Amino acid sequence: MAKILIVDDEKSYRQVLTLLFETEGHSVRTAMNGREALEMLGEEQADIIVSDIKMPDMTGIEMLRAVRETDPDLGVVLMTAFASVETTREAFKLGADDYVTKPFDVEELKLIVNKTLERRSLIDENRAFRRAQRERGSVGNIIGSSEKMNAVFQMIETVSEVQSTILITGESGTGKELVARAIHDLGPRAERPFVSINCGAFTETLLESELFGYVKGSFTGANTNRKGLFEAADKGTIFLDEIGEMSPAMQVKLLRVLQERKVRPVGAHAEIPVDARVIAATNRDLKAMSLDGSFREDLFYRISVIPIALPPLRERPDDIPLLVDHFVRKFSEQAGRDLKVSAKALEILEKYAWHGNVRELEHTVERAVALERTEEIQPERLPDHITNYNPERISADFNIPDGGVDLTSHLANLERRYVMEALRRCGGNQTKAADLLKMPVRSLRHLLDKHDIRTLSAQMRQGE
After folding, report:
1. What DSSP string runs through 435-447?
2. With contact defined as beta carbons under 8 Å apart, do 240 and 197 qualify?
3. Around Cβ 298, how many Cβ atoms within 10 Å?
4. Per-residue model confidence (pLDDT) at position 135
5. Is 246 inside a domain boundary?
6. Where would I find the beta strands (DSSP E) of 152-304?
7. Could you tell me the CATH number of the domain that includes residue 53?
8. What is the pTM of this model?
């Protein structure tokens, strides 16, 4: 049973709607105008308001504006006999859930009200869930109780209440998107969209149309207008993963969007205002990239107002047993089994370095659960490179002389040798050499100048 407030200056409509919703089992109150409705809400809250728009003293639009200032989640359905594009646009801009035109279809109105009540119920459930998360001291699907992860949890809860841009850094597999989702879920935009995109998965042209949208006819195949992800994330959050892979041209366009809070779809002349919180992530050193010119310095400072650095799994080994238990239970339930992990297998998992971090651990446990035929996961179900891992043997491979080593000079020499070998193999072609070294061409050119070998590159191209 829901508490429904009917607002209409016509008595006949109030009577019809009261009968309709009381028959459905709801509790109904009525008001003759928006001002009377606000007074009644001050005395007792409602779950949903069904209101006419055109009323004396205070219109439905004016009432909606006042309601949203105190309760952004209250369901509001508007009715009007004088529908217009301008009125409808203003109603939705102010946060109306839906509207119907008088005379209305009874079944349509019932369906709209039920859907609005379901949305309100989901909001309440999500709020209770987030409250329970805070009380447990954990966030979303992020598992950990180490000192470093507790610091991350505290940061997530703190920054979720502000709207500044956030840059999440960390190695691949550390859970950057999980952190972004947790920030969104704990904040005031939780009931709005969370939109994610991997910037490294698209070409420059495709990324622009994905982020900003396009208009019909702007390019071959653009048969209709299409919203971009910034528009889709309006009032919510957009997560820009692997932002370090974005081209220089796209960096300029993104910077403008962050400054102006407007997007221009591909092929459009007008800009569209957007209100989306931006959270970016990368496993690259954007600060170093901004110094060598491969990433815009002004964009770096714009997206990193609040930086969050995620620790690699090898720096929080105390969390490995918790993660293993979580993943074993997860994949065991999916398989309809009740598996545990043997003490010996857990010991092996705890000793491994996990360069792929939590993602690598998850895939390892998933594999072990799929292969295990006993009641406990045994060491034999783990990959050979994990069971045979010996950190002492690996450490012995690094021979440091008794007199010490000039690490800076050694690494610079090693870097120079790699660059020269890549150029040699690619015949002096800098683009191919950069691909071979997994770096932008601009970064390679920085190294050529650093080691004074740009002339050598030119000689290789000429076959000298």
Report:
1. HHTTS-HHHHHHH
2. yes
3. 12
4. 46
5. yes
6. 166-169, 194-198, 213-214, 226-227, 237-241, 262-263, 272-273, 277-282
7. 3.40.50.2300
8. 0.60
